[in-house]
Amino acid sequence: MAQRQGGRGGKRFQKGQRENSDIVIDYSRSDFAPDDVVNFLKNELHNENLNIIHQSTFHGFLCLSVSKEDGTSIIRLNGRSFNNVPLFIAQVAFGRLRENVKNVLEFIRAKIQSGNTIDLSNLREGNFPLNMNYFGDVIFTCFCAGVVARRDHLRIQKVNFDDNGLKNASALSYIKTYLPNIEEISLRNNPLDPNEKVLQNLKNSRIRIITDTKNSNNRKHIQSNDDNSDDDDDSSDGNNESNSDDNSEGYDDSENDSSDGYDQNNESDGGYENDYDNNNDESGNNNYSDNNDSDGYDQDDDEENNSSEDSPDSDDLRAGDDEYHQAAPSRNYRELDFTPAPSQIKNNHNAELTPFLDAYIDACRAPSGHDDLIDFYADDAVFSLTFLKASSGSPISLLFPDNRNILHGARAPQINGADKVVSFIREKFKGGFALEGAKYEISLVSGQFFAVTMSGTVAIEKDGATQEYGCTKSLVVIGVRRRLVIANEHMFLRIPTGH
């Protein structure tokens, strides 16, 4: 196969000669066998004869080399749930993966701010090993950001891509798959068309897209679905719509052709092929359809540019959306998004929280009622458990073989998700989690959440007999959408009462 040398990435292949696709899959769990993932792909694709030219693992990833057609099909499974874990899939040449992935992951970790924001702005001025002018490098960056967030148990809500020279928004097609909690993407000072279909899809999935109109006379803000402006209706329903479709359906080689001879579609160790075709899965359904409703986030309120002229709505926006979310005192009210908001629950926390905790204790006592108890936990609640050293034959050791004993043995991972938390409690305390004689103390922490310490006794059954243990629970209770939920729970079991 004829080769040519280029400025980046080593080997290059002549156009039309690349036949295989290198696919990288992150499946999060070390106890999953790679062959199980491969069999899952075959089942999902209804293709038992999936031709895998090469299979290996590297840095916790499953690496597959397949035909170009199979690669396109596999990419469409991005985000598909395998044993309750979404698969992260990207097309990355193996040579480029081996060369860069460790440095990219470490770089992204260093750019995390406040636990929920990744600042990837102006990467050309740093030591970032990838080139954000390249379509595939942007995809690889989003993939690695998702891997870091998942492996480090982070809830990333904002990503800043300002000043990176991004030209094709299609590279962001799967960012919501990689970062499922994302709420805002900043794209200031990038030569992007804000009307691209991918950005519209992201906006419709309730993600704030922050752009600007600098250095462009044609660029416009993304319009909300219920915008009644005559001028905007004309542009969004006409030529701009067709332009955005063309731009998001495929990658234009000429647009990103560089002087170093880089061939975007045909590269062995550094190239990527644009098989990310507008987020459509094999059935033709758009991956954003679950969140694509007409009641989405109004992008116009967040897309105000840096003009010295105030819009008629400026004063209202600066005043804040409601009594719990006041805007920053700035002429540019984008800063509203970075203003800490007080708790959505009023400061009279005893009146608010006492009925919630009493109802929670009642729900714990019920032998069944999984659905009732689950309503007390946040969707992403975290649960952990600790107990003192106990003999191997004690009821508590037999009940919790996967214990988090702080003195001996490997610690079991935390339990994440309301479903798993409640399932764990119901499995371990089949007769009902009766927190008898419960007493609790409530503290308001920084106006953001409540810390609750709860103590009492619980009953553990063994061989038909019941043994009571002392129990202390630490709860973090927050306000979400005007209701209280438990975001974090830690249980400490003490020695049996009377011993």
UniProtKB/TrEMBL annotation:
Region of interest: Disordered: 213-321
Domain of life according to the entry: Eukaryota
Acidic residues compositional bias, start-end: 227-236, 243-260, 270-280, 292-314
Compositionally biased region (Low complexity): 281-291
Protein name (Swiss-Prot/TrEMBL): NTF2 domain-containing protein
Organism of origin: Tritrichomonas foetus
